[in-house]
Amino acid sequence: MKPYRWYFFIGMFCLALSSVFFMLFPAVAGEMANAAAGKSKYPFTLGEYGVFFLILLILQSLLSYGRSVAMAFVSEKGVAQVRKDLYKSMITQPYSFFESNKVGELSSRITGDVEQLQTVFSVTLAEFLRQIITLIVGVAILAYVTPKLSLIMLATFPVIVISAIFFGKYIRKLSKQRQVEVASSNSMAEESLYAFHVVKAFTNELFEIKRYNGILDRVVDVSIKFAKIKGLFFVFLITVLFGGIFFILWQGAMLVQSGQMTIGDLFSFIIYTGIIGGAIASLGTFYTQLAGALGATDRILEIMDSEPEIHPDKQAEAESAWLKGDIVFENVSFTYPSRPDVEVLKDISLRIGQGQKIALVGSSGAGKSTIVSLLMRFHEVGNGAIKIGGADVRGYDIFQYRKNFATVPQDVILFGGTIRENIAYGQPGADDAAILEAARKANALEFINKLNDGLDTIVGDRGIRLSGGQKQRIAIARAILKDPGILILDEATSSLDAESESLVQEALNTLMEGRTSIIIAHRLATIVDVDCIFVINDGKVIESGTHAELMSNQNGWYRYLAGMQFSQSKLSLQLSEN
Ligand SMILES: Nc1ncnc2c1ncn2[C@@H]1O[C@H](COP(=O)(O)OP(=O)(O)O)[C@@H](O)[C@H]1O
Ligand SMILES: [Mg+2]
Fold first, then answer.
1. For a FRET experiment, which of 29, 314, 438, 515 has its CA 20 to 30 Å from that of 105?
2. How many angstroms separate the CA atoms of 370 and 490, rounded?
3. What CA–CA distance (Å, rounded) separates 36 from 427?
């Protein structure tokens, strides 16, 4: 909020001034009544009082307008800034952050928690200040008129402050808890809506409804607890303070009766008492809102304070690091932080020559994807080191380092937008000629041209659904546009039918030309001609060599697998084995 502090101060200044003016009304009104009764201490006529009222009124309007505009600047611009910063903090967090936080919960921090801040800055803070000023000015005026009675009132203040601190802590905790529950209900709903096809396929609508209802019931439980504690605080305030006010009022009436006070003074006295009562009543509400917003702030700061892995502003300008040389894994071991008891990679050593094509094969869960995610530095290696051209990869700036890579995964994720935007994601700002060329090389141009809107066709949630092979080719075009030195194909063709596989394979071959390529594949037919094949099993390299070398090992795992896959009568082989 700091950049908008001047607007905030201007707003608060207008507010303070208009609150003071507002508090003058009853005093002036009281004096006017005294003047009408001929008992005024001041030499003003009724007409002059009228003019004074008018001036107060105009000033009051101007100040209110000034305050609204200034506070709108703070709450709109400031809160947008908080959202921008929060989003930036999130998107620059390392991989592990996204593995340990649910997307729905994160997005509820950007929406729900920031929303609370917005209310505070647009309404609550201003009202809070106004009521405090009202209270102080009101008490001061009362103290001037009837010092003895005002002391009784002030005596209740420490009680209020101490209990406010006590209640505030509790309220803050509950507010935070409530936000957590709301966030988890959001994320549950979001997840199931995203995966609607799974829900439908399993006819689990009822199950999901029950699950959602259960979570919402918890939200309600916490909310009611929250409301109860707020209500308790409120009742407490009213009892203590209104008790005091009524007592003062009663004393005032006695003073008038005994002739120690004019009727005009009692008139303004009553109005002040009413205003002070109102201020105190609302103070409780605003205070609890503020305490709630502090809980939301905690959740926002939690993310903003965690160290990002990327500082886009600084790193975009950093010197680019084009990686050269062989990629070497030296005795790399790795354990996922989320599963400390399982060592996923065990002392892996391998060498990938620059410009070579290599393949990682092995059963699923063997650790192939983990190897490439360590290479891309999504996670830090445990023991050992990964070196490129002899230099430890940890020495490179991560932002520049990752620019060297492109991946084509098994499940391509396209953003909701046009095909053009999705291809240009490989190199934001690329011109149409480059995009078309990339699409052509990726074997995608033909099907794109058949679509009514061509490159402008909307894909994703609100657009048309592309087939697996089509998505794959868009991902390849994206990678071609990025033009990386190192290419990672993680089961890029594993889920395709034979026809689209050959189209995609052709595009992949174009993409791999002149780059170091790491291919993770299940169908061995797609990798027979690579420079080296590493067979991974249970986090270890158990065999390596060219296809021919591995085939010559009679008892090798690779030969066994290849025998199964390449056999003409694969099915009968499997059947006879069983
Ligand atoms: N993010 C993760 N957190 C914890 N364990 C993981 C994570 N990703 C993968 N694993 C585990 O690591 C092992 C290797 O996984 P992976 O590298 O994906 O295998 P592959 O790609 O060879 O099928 C598996 O046992 C898997 O359950
Ligand atoms: Mg994998």
1. 314
2. 11
3. 81
Which tokens hold the place of 212?
């959602």
Give the separation between CA 217 and CA 64, rounded to whole angstroms.
42
* 492 membership: H or E segment, kind and range: none
Which residue do the tokens 């611009």 mark? 77
* Higher-confidence position of 20 and 486: 486
Cβ distance 134 to 22 under 8 Å? yes
H helices within 335-417, ranges in order? 368-375, 398-402
Identify the DSSP state of 319.
P
Cα of 32 vs centre of ligand 2, distance in Å, is: 85
What are the CB-based long-range contacts (under 8 Å, 24+) for 169-173? Answer: 169/291, 170/229, 171/226, 171/229, 171/230, 171/233, 171/288, 171/291, 171/292, 172/291, 172/292, 172/294, 172/295, 173/295
Mapped onto helix, strand or coil, the DSSP state of residue 141 is helix
Q: Does the 314-403+522-578 domain belong in CATH 3.40.50.2020?
A: no
Per-residue pLDDT of 445-496, as tens digits, reads 989 999 888 999 988 766 678 888 889 899 999 999 998 999 999 988 877 7
pLDDT the model gives residue 406:
92
Structure tokens at 196: 């609607």
* Average pLDDT rounded to a whole number, residues 186-210: 89
Contact 368, 360 (CB under 8 A): yes
Instruction: Determine the 3-state secondary structure of 138 from DSSP.
Output: helix
Q: Which of 99, 368, 370, 488, when mutated, tests ligand 1's pocket best, judged by the most ligand atoms within 8 Å of its CB?
A: 370
Mutation to probe ligand 1, out of 101, 339, 343 (largest number of atoms < 8 A from CB): 339
How much of the chain, in percent, has pLDDT values that exceed 70?
A: 95
Quick one: tokens of 186? Answer: 């959001």
Q: What H or E segment, with its residue span, contains residue 279?
A: helix 263-304
What is the CATH class of 2-304?
Answer: mainly alpha
Amino acid of residue 125: L
Q: Answer whether 424's CB lies under 8 Å from 341's CB.
A: no
Q: How distant, in Å, are the alpha carbons of 34, 87, 282, 358, 511 from that of 49?
A: 12, 56, 31, 93, 86
CA distance 15 to 151: 27
The answer to whether 59 and 21 are in contact (CB under 8 A) is: yes
Encoded tokens for 302: 């939690």
Confidence of residue 572 (pLDDT cuts 50, 70, 90): very low
Three-state DSSP state, 199? helix
Give the distance (Å) from ligand 2 centre to CA of residue 334. 15
CB hemisphere CA count around 37 (13 angstroms): 14
How far is 146 from 496, CA to CA, in rounded Å?
A: 88
Domain ranges for the chain:
2-304, 314-403+522-578
Is 344 near ligand 1, meaning CB less than 6 Å away? yes
